[in-house]
Automatic annotation (TrEMBL):
GO terms for biological process: biotin biosynthetic process; methylation. It comes from the Bacteria. The lineage of its organism: Bacteria, Pseudomonadati, Pseudomonadota, Gammaproteobacteria, Chromatiales. Converts the free carboxyl group of a malonyl-thioester to its methyl ester by transfer of a methyl group from S-adenosyl-L-methionine (SAM). It allows to synthesize pimeloyl-ACP via the fatty acid synthetic pathway. It comes from Rheinheimera tangshanensis. GO terms for molecular function: carboxyl-O-methyltransferase activity; malonyl-CoA methyltransferase activity; S-adenosylmethionine-dependent methyltransferase activity. This is Malonyl-[acyl-carrier protein] O-methyltransferase. Its EC number is 2.1.1.197. It holds the Pfam family Methyltransf_11. Pathway: Cofactor biosynthesis; biotin biosynthesis. The keyword Transport does not apply. Residues 47-138 form the Methyltransferase type domain.
Amino acid sequence: MNALALTDDIARHFGRARESYEQAARLQRLVAAKALSLLTPTAGLLLDLGSGPGWFHPKLKQHCSELIALDLSHDMLQKTRAAQQAVLVVQADAQSLPVASESIDKVFSSLMLQWCEQPGLVLQEINRVLKPSGSAVISTLLEGTLQEFKQAWSQVDQHQHINQFLPLGFYQQLERQYPHLGLQLQTETVQLEYQDVLALARELKDLGANTVTQGRNNALTGKQRWQKVQQAYPSRCIDGQISASYQVLYLTLTKQHSES
């Protein structure tokens, strides 16, 4: 699948999830709250990059004077417009921001970066649009996310059912490669419980996050196959529920003053 087709596919998946997203977004709420705690509340213009349906905007508006929402999904942005929290709503790709250089005071982006083909380019774009001394807080998922689900599926077939997330080392390399970005990295493991593997799969679907960006599996997943996945799942809670782990990375970026 080429980059343009993949981008369109991701936009459609998240667009179809616009009505169910907020109710299912347990992980998103936890991670967004942690990311927000890293964002300094100051006056100015804030860009929410990958805003989704705008459910977090009331809290974001406490950290800025004005808010711009940008997302890849037209359907998600319809919900954002209806909320009337953002002064401007823009449909665009984070890898090519239609935003003037050095025009934004702060950027907030929670759990969007992992869906981008070139995350390094996104960080460069964020740095471009920030004013000198402006800052950004970005969260993303790392390799090891949903490892239990992946392990269970590996006992059933050889198809890829879980998206491949980048390792921490990739971002550590970006930190060394682009010192002018002033990147700082912080990791966290988030554990969530589910009644069974079907409940986990339904939540991923309701979030629009069931897109597999590489090695897509076109095989059907019938009842018997799900039962096998449940039996092979490696982690059980005392009450019989299953536990899924998410490896989260928080990046903070500070725009440096250009040398005269």
